[in-house]
Design a protein that fits this description.
16% strand; alpha/beta; 8-stranded parallel beta barrel; binds 1,3-dihydroxyacetonephosphate; 250 residues; TIM Barrel; triose-phosphate isomerase activity
Length: 250
């Protein structure tokens, strides 16, 4: 049985005061019985997350990591730095990074490796655009994005990642994939991991695959009831403690 995981992706939102209210609200509520919660904050707020969430069951992490470990890379933040701030997770290859920052599959694979080397759990995001879905290319696109990561990792490393399926057309649009649409892609991703090679069936069975894209309190339970959906990656609804907790309890 895979543990459910619900991660909030704050994106470019927050302030010390707003985060304090949000984190206190999440922390004050009873921990969801069947899901682990985590928040992925902008870099400057990781110390705040660490201060507020240490000793709780709530994890925290970053939204990106450098593909480099050190050196002359102005503006980059390396995985060992995230580890120093107690991060458990880091998002890798979010569609907003892929589309606005030109992150290729190769960069996403390198970032995944850097995260693993520092003991972080990379949450590797894949997803198709609306045009790609309408052209019948969903499986080809997410399959290619996944393959780049599978090819770079050992089976042991693969056992330490989380995958997230986020259809680009569902992000921030209020258009959720139906639970059947999401389940179909999740099942396909798991099948691709099994097919990657001998001995991959076990790691595929244990792999947590989260769904992201307009998850809200009123659609979370239905999505999370699907057999291959192991939780959610939540954008907008993770900025309100009440909504985020309701999703965690779904
Ligand atoms: P929304 O929940 O705002 O659609 O964002 C999803 C997302 O991109 C999470 O990473």
């Amino acid at each position: 049985m895979r543990q459910k995981l619900v991660i909030g992706n704050w994106k470019l939102h927050g302030s010390l005061a707003a985060n304090a209210a949000l984190l206190d609200g999440i922390k004050a509520a009873p921990a969801p019985a069947r899901a682990r919660l985590a928040v992925c904050a902008p870099f400057p707020y990781l110390a705040q997350c660490q201060a507020v969430l240490s000793g709780t069951t709530i994890g925290w992490g970053a939204q990106d990591v450098s593909a480099e470990t050190r050196g002359a890379f102005t503006g980059e933040v390396a995985a060992p730095m995230l580890a120093e701030f107690g991060c458990a997770y880091v998002l890798v290859g979010h569609s907003e990074r892929r589309s606005y920052h030109g992150e290729t599959d190769a960069i996403v694979a390198a970032k995944t490796l850097r995260a693993l080397e520092s003991g972080l759990t990379p949450v590797v995001c894949v997803g198709e655009t609306l045009a790609q879905r309408e052209a019948g290319e969903t499986e080809a696109v997410v399959g290619r994005q996944l393959a780049a990561v599978l090819d770079a990792l050992s089976i042991e490393q693969l056992g330490r990642i989380v995958l997230a399926y986020e259809p680009v057309w569902a992000i921030g649009t209020g258009k959720t994939a139906t639970s059947e649409q999401a389940q179909a892609v999740h099942a396909y991703l798991r099948k691709q991991v099994v097919a990657h090679g001998e001995g991959f069936a076990d790691v595929a069975a244990r792999l947590q695959i989260l769904y992201g894209g307009s998850v809200k309190p009123d659609n979370a339970a239905e999505l999370f009831s699907m057999s291959d959906i192991d939780g959610g990656l939540i954008g907008g609804a993770s900025l309100k403690a009440e909504d985020f907790l309701a999703i965690g309890n779904a």
